[in-house]
Amino acid sequence: MSLVRIARLVVASVGLGLSYSAAAAEPESCPGLIASRDTLFSPVALRQDEVGLTFVGHATFLIETPQGVRIATDYSDGTRPAVTPDVATMNKAHSTHFSYLPDPGIKHVLKGWNPAGGPAYHDVTVQDVRVRNVSTHIRSSAGGTEYNGNSIFVFETAQLCIAHLGHLHHTLSPEHLKKLGRIDVLLVPVDGGYTLETFDMMEVLRAINAPLMIPMHFFGTSTLNRFLASAREHFPVEFGTSASITLSRATLPNSPKVLVLPSH
């Protein structure tokens, strides 16, 4: 049974944004084949055009697809959903974003860095969802740059493209934006210090221009409110009453907005 509590966003629909066809050496950007493919009827409490999203805490969300695939983002030893996901994505900037001992029942554990060096590369299809990544850099412990130490993971399902920025440490280049393609829902680290400074994060949000942006990775109300004060200069801000929401293309906002979810 799905963990999603059916709490719908009652907002107007939005037209299709721009998409980008990547070169053969790069993963096709959103919407790809999975995002445009018809899905089968699912026995869980989701229609074929709906995706469940639950804010578990810190940088971890549980994403549930119409066919019942479960994905945990930035899965760690301290923050993980109550159910075993089919896919777990991880990043390495801090131990709160990865697991030393992931549940052995997870079929796909996707690291946002390449232990052998160079960028990580993932483009995995699991039933009705495609998961791919765009590599970014992080600050090293010595104060320099660790190239390709983070990944923005993109989840394509039910005509939606959901991106998790991970532990983002820098603004995005035109090449990053091309690889991302159209993003409908953006999961955003908003602490303003450990990740990207708030002013620069606003640049990222405006560049991606997703209809729905959901904050994560904040440490109490003070860091969240600092982000929201800046966000209100550019976007409307709303507060959800449940950690779980149901998303679909038909209920995306007409223009970008920030939705704050309580953690699970």
UniProtKB/TrEMBL annotation:
The keyword Hydrolase applies. Keywords: Hydrolase, Signal. This is Zn-dependent hydrolase. The lineage of its organism: Bacteria, Pseudomonadati, Pseudomonadota, Alphaproteobacteria, Hyphomicrobiales. Residues 1-24 form the signal peptide. InterPro entries: RibonucZ/Hydroxyglut_hydro. SUPFAM superfamilies: Metallo-hydrolase/oxidoreductase. It holds the Pfam family Lactamase_B_3. It comes from Microvirga aerophila. One of its GO terms (molecular function) is hydrolase activity. It comes from the Bacteria.
